[in-house]
Amino acid sequence: MLLEACRLAFDDDAPRLVWADEIGGERGELVVLQCDLARGGLAPADVAARRARERELLQRHAVAWSGVHTYGRFEFRRGFVEALQVDLDVFVSCADAIFEAAPLLRSVTVDGPKPLPGGGPPSLASFEQLLELPAFWRLHRLGVFAAGGRYPLGNQIATLLVDAGALGQLTALDISSSSIGGPGIAALTGSGQLEQLDELWLRRHHCRDDSLVEMLGAARQLRSLALVGPHSVVALAQALPALRSLQIDNVEHGGLDALARSPAARTLTSLRLGGLALHDPHFERFPALVELDLYLQPVTGPIGQLPRLRRLRLAPSTTVDDALAIARPLGGQLERLDLRGARVPEERRAELADLVAGELQTGPASDMPPML
Questions:
Q1: Which end of the chain is more exposed for a tag (fewer CB within 10 A), N or C?
Q2: Angle of helix 125-132 versus helix 154-164 axis, rounded to 10
Q3: Does the predicted TM-score (pTM) go above 0.85?
Q4: What's the rounded Cα separation, in Å, for the pair 18 and 321?
Q5: How far lies 228's CA from each of 143, 180, 223, in Å?
Q6: Distances, alpha carbon 54 to alpha carbons 57, 176, 190, 334, in Å
Q7: 3-state SS, residue 246
Q8: Between 157 and 253, the higher pLDDT residue
Q9: pLDDT score for 149
Q10: Using CA atoms, how far apart are residues 75 and 78, in angstroms rounded to an integer?
Q11: Which residues of 182-217 are buried (b: 16+ CB within 10 A; e: fewer)?
Q12: Euclidean distance between CA atoms 101 and 212, whole angstroms
């Protein structure tokens, strides 16, 4: 009954905390920790301590607690498995069992459809079956990682989603590695269903700027957008709605200035950039930033005064001296400074760690893509 209360009041922490108190122990502790972290407002050192404890609990118990580890990659959010990356055929076959094990599952990324053995074109039959499952309509967030090789599937996938009315129930959609192009974007734009979307990720798209501009005009409620593909940031900037989160690559000369003049500049709390090296970028033109990810965006010199910034990720090519120059004015407010992939000698690591109020992350870079 308590889990059902959590499901029915999904965005409310109170039923989860009641469940945590009822079950107790380390399992209940994870719920409390993750709800605290999701709520925010903690001091950087407190966030770092909770993150360390969260990792400790998950390293020891995540597999046993998840119930879905045999199906694919999963993620705990606010104490429960809410996201799963799974092979399309596996999800179609096992959806009911998956939801029985993870009743608060909300976000699924399916891997597929895939090319047939021998290199033949992928069949979309499994994706059509997915849209017919009663379990599909329990989802609020859908990712499709369709590695079709020389058989791009993005346009067909977008059309199938529109025809099924699926966008009317989804709050988040990720179409990745599927080479979605003009016909797929036109289907999404003309569907009349984009007003429901809060998040849209189009990674490895092949769309003209004018098509993307038209799509953004039809999705004015978007709060999170990811665009990875051949576009012009300058051409798109003024079409951006008042976003909270933006991931965008191919940042050409003048692209950051165009973003700073866009409607999103004053509302963005999370920004991830990829493209040209930035010199003297002055990110203070984005005053609401809490998280800045420059993993694919080499930066030299200071990045400006950002009083709300709490999480910062720098490119692996960042030198220790550049990291120190950035950390000196900002480190006291950071929950996390992420330098994974960068070469940081142990003696310099201590120097950096002393500047960061929260956690300094070093070591190998993670190559796992983010989950919707």
A1: N
A2: 20
A3: yes
A4: 48
A5: 15, 11, 17
A6: 5, 29, 43, 18
A7: strand
A8: 157
A9: 61
A10: 10
A11: eebbbbbbebebbeebbbbbbbbbbbeeebbbbbbe
A12: 39
CB of 219 within 8 A of CB of 197? yes
d(CA 256, CA 297): 12
DSSP letter at 306? -
Take residue 361 and report the two structure tokens written for it: 């992350």
- More confident position, 147 or 336: 336
Q: What is the dihedral of CA 101, 104, 109, 115, to 10 degrees?
A: 30
Position with higher pLDDT, 120 vs 187 = 187
Total residues found in the chain within this entry: 372
Q: At what angle do helices 13-23 and 25-39 cross, to 10 degrees?
A: 160
Backbone φ, ψ for residue 284 (5° rounding): -65, -10
Helix H or strand E encompassing 55: helix 44-66
Residue 48 has which token pair?
Answer: 């770092």
Name the DSSP letter for residue 156: H
β 80-87/107-111 pair status: parallel
Beta bridge partners of 174: 143, 201
Q: Note the pLDDT tens digit of each residue in 10-43.
A: 999 999 999 999 999 999 999 999 999 999 999 9
Contact 169, 140 (CB under 8 A): yes
CA-nearest of 130, 209, 144, 208 to 178 is 144
Angle of CA points 97, 128, 101, to nearest 5°: 10
